[in-house]
Amino acid sequence: MREAYEWIRDIIIALLIAGTVLLFFKPIVVKQESMQPTFYSNDYVIVSRQAYNLFGDVERGDVIVFKSDLVDENGEQKHLIKRVIAVGGDTIEIRDGYVYLNGEMLDEPYVAEEGISGEMGSVTVEEGKMFVMGDNRRVSQDSRSPELGQVEESSIVGKVVLRIYPFDSIETF
Q1: What would the pLDDT profile of 45-98 be if each residue is shown by its tens digit?
Q2: How many CB atoms lie within 10 A of CB 73?
Q3: Among residues 156, 131, 155, which one has the least CA distance to residue 143?
Q4: Is the pLDDT confidence value at 21 over 80?
Q5: Distances (CA, A) of 90 to 14, 98, 118, 124, 129
Q6: Are strands 63-71 and 98-101 parallel, antiparallel or unpaired?
């Protein structure tokens, strides 16, 4: 009887620990090529669900996962992983393939290919929204496309804080 009690107690403790961890963190498998070379398809990342509730506001350069209005082949709402380029009140423009934030060209060492961001006239990001782009600009469906546009901060699932797989590429963000 005592051994059964100990087993039940250990299972309950394990479930409580797992539930607490999942309240703060969410494991995600990257299923897109839009963030290469930062993330590749089938990379496993850990997303902090509470990053912006507990530790501050969304910042330019953050890599986030968010719920979009786009749907996948099963008709389910897509979760996308993108980099925050601009936040509410910022002005963004894309010319000659380069991104300009508040009039200054961004230094973007993370992009797959320099100078292929396309063209876009000057746009001011609305308060409470973000302008997001993938690091692989050639294939990324991001805020440049009318289907996605500026992203509501309220749609954020979390901030990417750690890549845990592949094991030879473990990295914090």
Answers
A1: 999 988 898 888 999 999 999 999 888 888 888 899 999 999 999 999 999 999
A2: 6
A3: 131
A4: no
A5: 45, 16, 19, 6, 10
A6: unpaired
CA-CA distance, 127 to 51, in Å (whole number)? 19
What's the CA gap between 160 and 100, in Å, rounded? 24
What is the pLDDT at residue 153?
95
CA distance 10 to 6: 6
Question: For residues 93 and 144, is the Cβ–Cβ distance under 8 A?
Answer: no
> What average pLDDT score do residues 153-173 get?
93
Between residues 158 and 74, which one has the greater pLDDT? 158
Of all helices (H) and strands (E), which one includes residue 98? strand 98-101
Q: Which residues are catalytic?
A: 34, 82
The token pair that represents 57 in the structure block: 């506001």
Instruction: Say yes or no to pLDDT of 165 above 90.
Output: yes
- pTM for the full predicted model: 0.87
3-state secondary structure at position 127: coil
- Residue 12 burial (CB count, 10 A): 10
Spacing of C-alpha 7 from chain mean position: 39
Give the C-alpha distances (Å, rounded to integers) separating 55 from 49, 142, 163. Answer: 11, 26, 20
Closest to 143 in 3D by CA, of 134, 154, 155: 134
